[in-house]
Amino acid sequence: MVTILPIYIKNNVVLPSYDEGAPLVPRDRDPQPSRLGNVVESELQSEQQTTHAQRTSNFATLMHLLKGNIGTGILAMPNAVSNAGLLVGTVGIPILGIICVHCMHLLVISSKTLARKLGCTSLDYSSTAEQAFRLGPARVQRFASFARFCVNTMLMLTQFGFCCVYFLFVSTSLYEVVKNLSGSTPISAHGYMGILLPLMMLFNFIRSLRTLSPFSSIANVLQSSGLIMVFYYLFRGSHSGNLSPYVAPIKKLPLYFGTAMYAFEGIGVVLPLENAMATPDDFGGLNGVLNTGMVIVACLYTAVGFYGYLKYGDDVKPSITFSLPLESVSELIRLMFALAIFLSYALQLYVPISIIWPFLKKKFSLERFSSRDQLIFELLLRAFLVLITCKRKLRLIIVKDAFIMVFGIFGSIIGTYTVIKEIVEAMSKPS
């Protein structure tokens, strides 16, 4: 999902857009308070109370960023390239990556600029959108609360979708591995989802990004090792499938676009990671954590997409791991990716929880309960959210921003079409 905030550039400084004659509205005299908008203040207060010991290092943030972006999408890149052709598909991946990274930088810069104007430490994604509208032109200020609502809604739907895919990927991978090694299994793929459910709930009870950091590192090691082993298969022998023309038929491009856009899935974790850093100024910049991580991500996506399609051609499966030969090493690769995605689940669900929990605390005045009771309520919320994912599978600047907005909307539509198409095809196949 791509969300663009109203900003403009003046004297080489990015500022929120507003009418020159319109007065800025102080936070203590908000003309349009809302129950959801008031959550900003409690979020900021809790953020300011975070101790330095609870904050994450640059390396830990990089691990989280890589884990938040490298998920099941990288395994689908060869299939995506097959829908666009070798040339268009390979060149298009880094172009999409540049657009996504640009949007991430806009989000970080806008958040910092607004935080300085409001005199607070940091702002989350939805708070940034809300305050950009609230300090914007007079004609858009009344939409501030609606902007916050839209961003929160889209973020939660997006992250829930990722979690559903993660849940399904892990259970399906376990089912396939057991079936291939033993010849048969009495438990269906849905049965493995039931087995994984309590484990997912327990893992999701981890509430701190700092505590999740070692798991992200382990997941990155597993995925890196798995990718090295995948490349071993890709470089072994000659290609074994027919290759499409350099440019595939245009009717297949939406499938490529939807898969590639899904792969760059980490914009929702950008601000939570930056806000949790011990040195947030190191997040942006030319050699910052964000650029370093996303360059690695884009290079890996491009390499897996190009060499995977070059090896298997049009016969490549939706996940490259299912195109590998049925050997013990390939089954080990599937298990490694399944465990890596399992360890990434809590990070993806961290974003919806960070949105829903503060809102519920404010709406139902949960502060009146003891810390122990609040912890129980939060753990119940986390368990409920896991259950849900288990059950439900200036003019040039303005022109550029408008293009990215249309680009994002188009990507959302195409992504939805791709998912529905895959579901219909899966349901049509005999079990």
From TrEMBL:
The keyword Transcription does not apply. GO terms for cellular component: vacuolar membrane. It is found in: Membrane. Its main location: membrane. Residues 55-390 form the Amino acid transporter transmembrane domain. GO terms for molecular function: L-amino acid transmembrane transporter activity. It is a multi-pass membrane protein. Keywords: Membrane, Transmembrane, Transmembrane helix. The chain crosses the membrane at residues 84-108, 149-169, 189-206, 218-235, 255-273, 285-310, 332-360, 402-420. InterPro entries: AA_transpt_TM. This is Amino acid transporter transmembrane domain-containing protein. The lineage of its organism: Eukaryota, Metazoa, Ecdysozoa, Arthropoda, Chelicerata.
